[in-house]
Amino acid sequence: MPLSEADRTLLEFESRAPRNVGAKEEAIRAELGITPVRYFHRLNALIDDPAAVAEFPVLVHRLERIRHQRANLRY
User: Fold this and answer.
1) Tens digits of per-residue pLDDT, 41-59?
2) pLDDT tens, 7-23?
3) 63 within 8 A of 43, measured Cβ to Cβ
């Protein structure tokens, strides 16, 4: 199933989002009109979506690596 326009917008935002946490959260609210919690929940789901990998392979694989590294740090 192809990505929705909202999912595509979210991934495009992530590719250019500020790296500073506070600035990123502010930009999420201002540009996307959603809460950071909702943003990160959706972003995490998109990492596992084959359509997201097909359209944004470099970004999704980078996010996968980051998620994997953080999971390893917890254990």
Assistant:
1) 999 999 999 999 999 999 9
2) 999 999 999 999 999 99
3) yes
DSSP symbol at 2 = P
Separation CA 69–CA 46 (nearest Å): 18
Query: Is residue 75 predicted with pLDDT exceeding 90?
Result: no
Burial grade of 28 (CB within 10 A; 0-12, 13-18, 19 or more): buried
Orientation of helix 36-47 relative to helix 5-16, angle to 10°: 100
CB atoms within 10 A of CB 61: 12
Contact 28, 34 (CB under 8 A): yes
Helix (H) or strand (E) holding 31: none
Burial 5-27 (b: 16+ CB within 10 A, else e): eebbebbebbeebeeeeeebbeb
